[in-house]
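Two folds, back to back.
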Amino acid sequence: MSFGDISYIDGFLFVTAYNANSGGPSPYQSHVVKYNTQDNGLNQITVNNIGTGVAEGIDKHLDDNWVSYHNIQKIRRFDASWVQKAEYNLPTVAKAYGSYQGIIWENGYLYANMHGPNEKGQDFQGGIDKFSFNGSTFTFVESFNPPSFGASQGMEKYNGIYLFNDRAENRIIICNSLKPGKVKAEVLRTPKQRLVNATLINRWEIFDTTYDRRPRYYKDETGRVHLSGMCKNTDSSYGPTFTHVIFQLPRGYRPKYSLNFAVVSNAAFARISITGNLSAQAAGQVVPQEGTSATWVSLDGISFLADPDGTELV
């Protein structure tokens, strides 16, 4: 069984799910699963059959539940008990990697996100299509691009903001409008894609590019900064002093007070200091200390809480 899109309706989480029949890969059979999110964790309440096809987007409109299907150019209408009331054809606007994924009803119009590219480098064939509805027929109104290349999978509206699943970039795009050209509120990525390559200084270099062990850092959703990677120093007169700072963390990635960390350097233990925000110009410097060898030093395991009040300091 595979899950499709999710929707938060009337205080409950609804998730589409589909699986192939035992006779072969198709036709697919879809269900919608209702969860209670008020208690700890997700508690399954009901599972309802919503017909053949690969169910994806769900939204509530006119007191009914509407579902789009990835492999058919149709939208189905269900009552509150998930009994089907009607099925409507959606005009074919453009060829894509499937049919519609997420759907949103807004101001009497249906917005449907056409399935687009799954990976970088593929041709873009997605788009958000707007339809009017007269009670029996959907009519195409206009089409516009989603907020990013791969944001053509899930699409939801929650608490006045719009959330897009960017599958090609493995991230969530959060916007304040469906229309293009509006300000994006935030982009959430996985830690791997948030990794920033450190700008090494004072003759520090990447230790080994074969296994991609370059020094990097990222900040997770809790505000903790994580360092990783290995580097070496090519200065023949190297000594672990403040004149051999490895790199400097930018604003928003620095601790408030200076911190010390035990690391491994040239198969022995060493110490790395990170200068806090209270040290003005030196704030964020990653400094080699006792035991740090020029041969190599690992930054793996260094983690600390960023100073939320010092993001404007240089």
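---
second:
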Amino acid sequence: MRDGTVASLFSLMLLAMAMSGCISSDDDSSNGDVNEDPVDEDFQGLDYVECMIHEDLERCWNVLVPSTVNLSQQVPMIIDLHGNTLTMENQRALSEFDEIAEENGVIAVWPQGFDNSWNSGYCCSSAGELQLNDTGLIVEIVNKVVMNHSVDENRIYLTGWSNGCSLSQKLANEHSDIFAAIACMSYYLLDDPVPYYTPIPIMEIHGLLDQIILYSNDAIHLPNLEAQEHGAIQNLLQWADMNGCSGSVPDSNQPSVFYSVQSFTDCNNGSEVALVTLYGADHNPYEESYDIFTGNGGTVDTNGIAWDFVSQFSKEVQPEE
């Protein structure tokens, strides 16, 4: 540990909490602006909410630094983005990426969208109607967590559900220099490729029975004509084209009882592009139910599939092409 003992860091953390008012425990709300000084440097076992003012709005996020984090090393970080109408607390409980973080010694972050939504493109959110700069928000949150904790900046990953998945893909498109890989659930990239995008690994996970974001196309959001161009297969092929993958069809097919994985594995920059099709899942791809969405009933370890995919990749070392 770089600065003193665990005990002294804990004392400093408590003092910072008392002075700034912008960090809270699981049971407290968070109100003030973010402190410019780091929360702490390498303290493990933290679970707190931090807030700042972004575009004249208070924006908050939950950070988990599990007790399993190795304090002698820089560690991976994963950002988990909630769907439209959900909160960061809902997403954490549903995706169970806190368990992934604990098991693997990973820092996990759950940001909170404005009015429980994200501006990720043409679809259906208060944040989108206001044209909020949510990609800029997430990048700023990443920078804050990197400043406060010992994060390996070569292993920053994205995941999320629905509206949070489309924002994950928007972030991958616009900020491929920051994120090492993404694996998200139940939505598509809703923007055109930016000219400065460089290939990173992409996985999208989708239920065949999705009644909100259809597997075949996004026609539920018509009359927006762009929606006709988006479906799980189209999304796979678009990312394969963006990543310069070889061939017009996936070169890998891994079927199993409850799901299959089709992948382009020969892509530029050592990247891959994959689609996981869940045979028995609706819009909720996770094991647990949420609201009217029954999920996959425990048949597929969806968050485990996502983590196994992204955790293979680092920006530091890329395989030779």
